[in-house]
Amino acid sequence: MWTFGRKLAVGFALSFALLMLIGVLAYRGVDVLAQNSYQVTRTHAAVTHIGGLLSLMKDAETSQRGYLLTGEEGYLEPYRSALTSLPKLISELKPLLRDNPAQQARFEQASAMIDGLMAMHKERIETRRGEGQEAAIRNVKLGEGKRRMDELRAVITQMEDEETDLLRERAREVESTANGVRQTIVWGTVAGALLVLAAALTLSRALTGQVGTAVKHVQRSSAELQAAANQQAAGARETATSMTEISTTISELLATSRQIADSAQRVVGIAEQTASFARGGDGTLQAARETIAAMRRQIDLVVDHMLDLGRKSQQIGVVLDLVGELAEQTNILAINATIEATVAGDAGRRFSVVADEIRKLADRMTASTKDIRVQIDDVRGAVNTTVMATETGSKAVDAGARQFDEVAATFGRIAGLVVTTMDAAREIELSTKQQATAVEQLNVALSNTAQASRETEASSGQTSQTATELAEMSRDLLRLVQAQPT
Amino acid sequence: MTEATRARLRDWREAFDRSFAEPLRRREDEAALDVLGIRIAGDPFALNLADLAGLTPAMPPAPYPATAPGLLGLAGHQGQVLPLYDLQALIGRGPATAPRWWAITRAAPLALAFEGFDGQWRLLPGDRLQQSDATGTGWAVRCGGALRPLIELEGVIAAIAGGQLDGAAFADRDTSTTTAGRAGR
């Protein structure tokens, strides 16, 4: 189906084509008329020039006759004027006849005659002036001048007739062309009027049909648009309100993010302090481990000394066994001496006393060795107890060293974990800062969105108003198109 | 060195010096009784030193092919070969497990083996007490605050010589025949 615009364009295009056709035809007719008018004007000019030629030749002949008769120079004035004007007139006439070969030939012939006549006039004037009136009149009486003049008149008459025929022919052509132009204008106008009428009818029908439908559609669309605009305005208001609430929430979130970033920063600081303390604790543990190692060495030294002391106690015991053995043998000797003294009777009594003293010494020595042995046994027991206690202490020290190693390893792990914690806290801090930045940007974006929503609300109001105006305009347009409200 | 040890050393030195300073006490010495404290089967006994000709630590005895009761073998002492008897068996307490000492009797050339030797004491007459216990001697001596039955070697020697090695018979012997008994009387 053709749209209204297409129909309008086709109507205007047809009208324009018709107008162009009429214009072209009229232009061509006017052009032909102008050409004919130019030709007519040139023909008139040729006729005038031809008449001028004959007139000048008559003036020259008359002037030559007057001079021949009177001999006064004053009669030669027209002759001299003709003598001056003739070349100019001939030169002007020649291009006017250029498109007609017959006229061109007559013109050449007339020009030669004019030159002959003017030469003859000049010769008679010279004769009159030189030989006098008689000689001049004699020449005139020969009739040569009259004959030539008649011949010239005949040629010029032919030329004038030819030009007159041309004028008539061109008048017919002008009439024909003018008729064509007139018919073109009349029929073109009639055709244009018919075309415009048809286009008007078609467009009117299209206007009342398609445009009316479209306007109704526009009216409905305007109503829908108004409703949509109202709904959009309400949505935009709600959006703006929601955006404001979201912006408030995001501001709180931003504050929370900053608090988290501050907390993460504090955690990083604490983690750094903890790492520092852990490193310090590691050094302390190292020192404690070295102290324990020194203690272990001291304990080993003590154990060695104790074992050496035990060995020396054993050696003392061996020596004491020797001493005990000596004391026992001394005792036996003393007893045997006493026995011998007893056998000796009175002689051995003094010896018996000495032997008894020796025995007492041996007894004391035995008692002393027993005491010493007891003490040595005590010493060895103490040494054994000390060694056992020292070994227990050594084992405890070993266990402590192992525990210290475990504690040191735990401290190392703690330090590593603290470093990990520190890194994680830094990442948290960085992420939270980035989050805060993102939230700020989001807040800005939300503010912009809220602003856009408000603008959308305003725009929706404007749209609603425009839709109302559009509905009214469509009603007006429909009224204009269909001339009755719907 | 503790103070007690110093005091004991001082006492010993003083006693040693005093033994040179004091005059010889003949009468007390005459009345004195030298005893030898021994240990048989774990019990304390005493021997009169006057009954002995010598004391020596035990050595492995030379075996002697005889079946005499209590005979352990042959022992050498100061160039003499002596029969060695088990004193524990002789006093009717069964065979000794490990005799470590030999006592050489003066009354007869023989040696007696016993397990332990506790020491020698010079006793005053008041330290010799009559006792009617089952050891057979009828006498006991107080050595270092403890009473020890005094073994009468003369009876033991007589029993060996007479082949009477019955413990009960030995215990029923008259203790008045011992040297100690004579000395006490």
Summarize this, please?
The complex is a heterodimer of chains A (486) and B (185). Chain A has helices spanning 4-70, 76-96, 101-131, 133-141, 144-344, 349-482.
Query: Based on the structure given, which CATH architecture of chain B is correct?
Result: Beta Barrel
Care to count the β-strands of chain B? 11
Structural class of chain A: mainly alpha
What number of domains of chain B? 1
Task: Tell me how many strands of chain A there are.
Answer: 0
* Count of separate DSSP helical elements of chain A: 6
Unreliable segments of chain B (pLDDT under 50, ≥5 consecutive)?
Answer: 165-185
**CATH fold descriptor of the largest domain in chain A:** Helix Hairpins
Order of helices and strands of chain B: HHEEEEEHEEEEEEHHH
Strand content of chain B: 35-45%
Task: Please estimate the helix content of chain A.
Answer: over 70%
CATH superfamily membership of the largest domain in chain A, which one? Methyl-accepting chemotaxis protein
Itemize the secondary structure elements and their pairings.
The complex is a heterodimer of chains A (486) and B (185).
Chain A: H1 4-70, H2 76-96, H3 101-131, H4 133-141, H5 144-344, H6 349-482
Chain B: H1 3-21, H2 26-31, E1 33-40, E2 43-48, E3 52-57, E4 71-77, E5 80-86, H3 87-90, E6 101-105, E7 111-114, E8 116-123, E9 128-130, E10 139-143, E11 146-151, H4 153-162, H5 167-171, H6 179-184
Parallel strand pairs in B: 2-11, 5-7
Antiparallel strand pairs in B: 1-2, 1-8, 3-6, 4-5, 6-7, 9-10, 10-11
